[in-house]
Structure formats: C-alpha cells, structure tokens
Write a structure and sequence with these properties.
Strand order of the largest sheet: 1-15-14-13-12-8-11-10-9-16-17
Mean pLDDT: 92
Number of strands: 17
Distance between the termini: 35 Å
Shape: elongated
Structural class: alpha/beta
CATH superfamily of the largest domain: Dihydrodipicolinate Reductase, domain 2
Order of helices and strands: HEEHEHEHEHEHEHEHHHEEEEEEHEHHEE
Number of domains: 2
C-alpha cells in the first residue's frame, strides 16, 4: 500500500521512525531516488496516461501514489463495485471516466498503460487482454493465480513486446539495492543459507476485512467478479476477504511470501523457479471457513542453496530476510540493512584440546597463542555496518520505474519473467501444502510435480 493514512505498513513505518529517531546517527542513511528533483512539468507528448482496473485496498494506494508522479495522469478507472467509482473520482478527479467494464479502457486510444489490482483469479485475463490491446501493464503481485496462468502471461507479453512490471516493490528499493551491492562484492563470502520470516497477529493482518456497508447485488456485478471460479450466492464477506480462499487468492504465499522471494531473487541475482519446495502448516487460529493456511513454513532449494521461509498470521514477528555466508550475514528488514562480518576462523584455542593431558595441552596452547595472538594495539575489531532507508515496499519508486520504462521502452528488472518465477515459488509452496508432499518444478512439462 502507499503511505496514505490507512496503510498498515505506513502506520508501522511512522511508529518505527519515532522509536528509532535517537539511533539515527548510528546508521548510514541511503538516499532514495531523487524524484523530487525531476521537472514537475512535462510536455503533453511526454505525459503517460493510464487506466486502473481494481480500486480496492491495494488499488487505492496505487492510484493515490501514481497521480503524484510527474508526467503521469489517470484517465479512467474500472471496478465492479460502484462505490469504488465514487472513490476513484475522489482520488483522481471528477473528470476521469469510471466503468464496470475494463475492456472499455483497453479500447481507449488515449490510455498508454494499465494498472491491474484485481483479485488474483482475474490477473491473467485482464493482463493478457491489456497487452494484446497494446497497453503497457503494471500488475499487482502475485503475478499469477496458477503456473498455467503465468505461462500464458509470459507468452502474451513476448508476443506483444509490451513493457510489464509486477508489483512486489523490493526490486526498486535502495535497501535491496545496497544488499545486492554488498552481496555481489563478496561481503558475506560463499552463500550457504537464506532464511526469512514475516508474522502478523491481528484480524486485519489476517484479511478479516469489514465489507462495504452498502454492498449489494445492485451495486456490485457479482457474477462477473466470480469469473471462472465456482458460482456462489452473493457474499459480501467473500468479496472483502477473498485472500482467505484459494479459488480467488493465493493465500499467505501469494500475499506475503512473494515479497520475501522477490527481494531474495533481486539481491542474489536469481531469475528462476526453485528446484524443490516442501511446505507445512495449517489453519491454527483463523477458523473462519478459509481454506488457505494461516501458518505456512516452507523450505525451498534454489540451485544448491536451502532457503527457509516462515509465515504466520498467529504471532507478530519481525519481517526480516537473512543471507548467511562464510564471511558474515546480511540482515534485510523493512527499514534497514545490516552487515555483520565473521572471520570464519578460530578466535581462541580449540576447546577440543582440554581433553588432552597437560604436557600436550599446554604445548598446544602456547603454540596457538604464539602463532595467532595479535600484537598489542592491533586487535581486530569487526563492526556491524548498518544502513537505513525508506520502507522497501514503498510504492513510489516502483511505480516511477514503471512509468519511466513506458516512456523509454527500456526493460525492467521485475518484468513478466521475473514475476512468473517468483509466483512459481508461491505456487509450489501452496501445492506442497495441499498435496502434503514435497514438490518440484518440471521444466519439460512446465508443471509442478510431486
């Protein structure tokens, strides 16, 4: 979400900023991209006009942020719930067009690009239709609702040669860029393990959203909203809490794990699906009829590297990714990055030799100290390097990179292939959970197999 008043992440960021203000001098501050230094007036020919499909929770943040960028204008908004037409005009101005039919936006020749922020089960259809209509596309994460959907989205993009970006924002973060710089420089030596965690402990964090008070079949096109999912009677809670069900969403994997995997892929320079995944968990706390787990730990294998990711909606935990190597650790969090070097050598005589008789033990200790003790005044003092920067999930730099690419036609890091591979990790995590078995990605058949 953008840093608007209602954003969960914005609230946490403001709280962390107050708590950490006294520590700011201990950190190296990373400057964000200088968006404010760019010219605020663009020639009409250089203006990017976009339409948005989906003005819900995430779409509201995207729309609010996008119209703040120089040279960017919202022309139209589409949503199946009429109350969001009203909201879109409140955000972007009364002159914008609003409709329930997204294809009206695709037929509009004034629209250069589309922002797609619909439930996961609608991503593929809107995305493929948009690129096929000649529009560049920013699509919310996870890119796809299934591996087959992702393959269709990749194929459509390659066929049409459109600019695409997927909305897991860490690939545009200065914190992630610094982590990548340190990793590429060999700061942590040979990588041996990656671990990540993200935990929440509140109803909103568990997607227990309150439906719109006026929602009804009269102001919501319910049948179209269901799309290819099984037909069901109108249900306002299903509409608001679709992430709880695999028929419409992609669970904890698609909502939260995709951020951890996208950030990890960017830092390590990985752009491929994991080899294997083994997932566990269950529905332990939020027994509200959902069919996606509220606790979901997953062990992946990327190349030869084990990657352990832990997700929970039952306990608030730090959001962190650790990259562990022979020379130290990189620890990446929402608002900071730390590098802690490790020598990887004995810093004291081996305790194994306490099991030797005195004549051998004493001789060993003397030889060890003679060979290893530093000269007085030259004792090693490795220090942790700490960096602070803007929230690594801030929308503004990510959206800015997209609109700049629309102008320049230069490729983006988190394009459709990157997004597909990140989503495949999420689909493998879900498939392993539901199959109760480890799974792997079969590149020949382009399917997940047990």
């Amino acid at each position: 979400m953008s840093k608007t008043g209602f954003s969960r992440r914005g609230f946490l960021q403001r709280s962390a900023g107050v708590a950490g203000a006294s520590l700011a001098a201990k950190y190296i501050l990373l400057d964000p991209d200088p968006l404010t230094a760019l010219p605020r007036v663009n020639a009409p020919s250089d203006k990017v006009r976009f339409g948005i499909v989906g003005v819900g929770m995430e779409g509201t943040g995207l729309l609010t942020t996008a119209i703040q960028l120089p040279g960017v204008e919202c022309v139209a908004a589409c949503d199946l719930y009429d109350g969001r037409h009203e909201l879109a005009k409140e955000i972007a101005g009364k002159s914008i067009k609003t409709t329930r039919r997204y294809k009206e936006l695709l037929d509009d020749k004034e629209i250069d690009a589309m922002i797609i922020a619909v439930p996961d089960h609608w991503h593929k259809q809107v995305f493929v239709d948009a690129v096929s209509a000649g529009k560049d596309v920013y699509c919310e994460k996870p890119m796809s609702h299934s591996p087959a959907d992702g393959l269709a989205m990749v194929a459509a993009t390659k066929k049409t040669d459109r600019i695409t970006q997927i909305g897991a924002q860490r690939t545009s973060s200065v914190l992630c860029a610094k982590a990548k710089e340190l990793y590429d420089s060999g700061a942590i030596g040979e990588l041996s393990l990656v671990e990540g965690s993200l935990g929440r402990n509140d109803p909103t964090g568990a997607w227990e959203y309150p439906p719109p008070a006026d929602l009804s079949p009269q102001n919501l096109d319910w049948d179209t909203w269901l799309g290819t999912a099984p037909k069901k009677p109108f249900d306002p809670y299903l509409f608001a809490r679709w992430r709880c069900w695999k028929e419409y969403g992609t669970g904890l994997a698609g909502d939260l794990l995709v951020h951890l995997l996208s950030g990890m892929q960017f830092v390590l320079g990985i752009n491929e699906a994991p080899k294997r995944a083994s997932a566990f968990g269950g529905i332990y706390r939020w027994k509200d009829g959902r069919n996606t787990p509220d606790v979901h730990p997953v062990l992946f294998e990327y190349g030869e590297i084990p990657v352990y990711m832990r997700l929970t909606l039952a306990t608030e935990t730090a959001e962190v990714t650790r990259f562990m190597g022979s020379k130290g650790i990189l620890e990446l969090t929402e608002f900071g990055l730390s590098y802690t070097p490790q020598a990887g050598v004995d810093l004291a005589p081996s305790y194994y030799c306490y099991g030797l008789p005195s004549r051998l033990k004493n001789a060993y200790f003397k030889q060890w100290h003679d060979e290893h003790d530093p000269k007085p005044g030259h004792e090693p003092a490795p220090k942790t390097e700490s960096y602070r920067g803007n929230d690594y999930d801030d929308l503004k730099p990510h959206l800015w990179n997209f609109f700049q690419a629309v102008r320049s036609r230069k490729p983006l890091v988190q394009d459709v292939v990157f997004g597909h591979n990140a989503a495949l990790g999420c689909h493998m995590a879900n498939e392993s959970y539901y199959r109760k078995s480890p799974v792997y990605w079969d590149a020949d058949s382009q399917t997940i197999k047990s």
